[in-house]
Specification:
Elements (H helix, E strand, L loop, with lengths): L7 E4 L2 E4 L1 E3 L4 H10 L9 E8 L5 E7 L5 E6 L5 H15 L4 H11 L4 H9 L11 E7 L4 H12 L4 E11 L2 E8 L26 E5 L8 H7 L1 E4 L3 H8 L6 E6 L3 E8 L4 E2 L4 E4 L2 E4 L22 E10 L18 E3 L3 H10 L8
Parallel strand pairs: 6-7, 7-8, 10-12
Antiparallel strand pairs: 1-2, 3-8, 4-5, 5-6, 8-9, 10-18, 11-17, 12-13, 13-17, 14-17, 15-16
Length: 361
């Protein structure tokens, strides 16, 4: 049965029905969603409007969620039931094949700022390395006939990630309201599209650059790491495992969480527990525990490897005090102590800031 949206205002003990009116022009609903896609019930970043497909047709809106998944939004307009369903399936088959580079190209044409900055504005974090892992298809309409509803429900039963959302326009004493309802409840299990195509949906890694998060504890001081040439992490397997994965010869970019990037350097050896760690000085290798340190890195001897502080020696290429930390909206930040740095946006700005464009390290 087609969905019908009704609303009543309670005056005393009497419910008064709100008058249903014709929706504004489809272009107005398009603009509403373009400006505020949260009308659909979740935070979304619109990365494309009237996106031209390879077949010459125009996809109404292309949006992205916090996980980097795409959402194709298609307004019913004056299409017949079978036309709108066929249209969104066609767009979905194309969108599922979009690579990371394809998505960045679309976003660059639509957004008035870099994609990474726009993503952080909406979601409060840098975008994930992998984009378009899953896909959702949404038909936007004032109403949908029973035939279209059956088709959508049938497709969902077979795992096609399609749904329909209805907007009703109501008036009450000069006030206007926009009401929303979904064909299938958001509480129901939502199918996800199988990955399509062979083009990379994850940022490529150059085989050299790593991200390091230093800090997160009052015992750990950047002034120590800056002066003596090391990075470290500890206090749990989540932190120590990634630090211990740093290979010798890696180029690392060091971020102080909540502050910004302060250094770039090359790792000189594998991670060792603090009690065994050495760092490179002018006279050669020396034990870090014997150096004057502002922070406290020693842990109880009975602590497991997962809890201990692990230290990686580093030769700094460029390093600056915390007061000169560098950060631009949209740059990569992560809770992992160390991980591969893939994001081109961050690498380009760091290379420029630290003047390493021609660096051969």
């Amino acid at each position: 049965m087609p969905v019908e949206m009704r609303m009543w205002r309670i005056d005393g003990d009497e419910p008064k029905p709100l008058k249903a009116s014709a929706l504004p022009a489809e272009k107005d609903l398009h603009e509403f969603l373009k400006r505020d896609p949260s009308l659909l019930g979740e935070r979304l970043l619109v990365i494309g409007s009237e996106v031209i497909s390879p077949h010459g047709s125009r996809l109404d809106l292309l949006a992205m969620d916090a996980e980097g998944n795409l959402n194709v939004l298609e307004l019913k307009r004056d299409k017949t039931p079978r036309e709108v369903v066929a249209q969104i399936l066609d767009y979905g088959s194309w969108a599922s094949t979009l690579s990371r580079d394809d998505i960045l190209d679309i976003a660059t044409k639509h957004l008035d700022q870099p994609f990474e900055a726009g993503f952080e504005d909406v979601f409060g974090s840098a975008p994930p390395d992998e984009l378009n892992g899953d896909l959702s298809l949404t038909i936007v309409a004032a109403e949908l006939d029973a035939s279209s509803e059956r088709i959508v429900a049938y497709l969902r039963d077979f795992g096609v990630p399609v749904n329909a959302v209805f907007f009703s326009y109501l008036e009450d004493d000069g006030r206007r309201y926009l009401a929303r309802s979904w064909l299938t409840s958001s509480d129901d299990e939502t199918p996800t599209a199988a990955p399509g195509g062979s083009k990379s949906k994850r940022a490529a890694w150059n085989g050299k650059d790593w991200y390091v998060s230093f800090g997160g504890s009052l015992d750990r001081r950047w002034e120590d790491a800056h002066e003596h040439g090391f990075v470290s992490a500890g206090g749990g397997r989540f932190y120590t495992q990634s630090m211990r994965s740093l290979p010798e010869g890696a180029r690392i970019w060091v971020n102080l969480p909540g502050t910004g990037y302060v250094a770039v350097g090359t790792t000189l050896g594998p991670a060792l527990r603090f009690s065994e760690a050495t760092v490179m000085k002018q006279d050669g290798w020396v034990r870090l525990a014997e150096q004057p340190l502002a922070g406290s890195y020693e842990r109880a001897e009975f602590e497991s490897d997962d809890d201990a502080e692990w230290v990686v020696p580093v030769r700094w290429l460029k390093a600056r005090p915390e007061s000169q930390a560098f950060w631009v909206k949209g740059m990569f930040g992560n809770q992992h102590s160390a991980c591969k740095l893939r994001q081109e946006f961050t690498l380009e700005r760091l290379a420029e800031h630290f003047d390493l464009e021609s660096d051969s390290e």
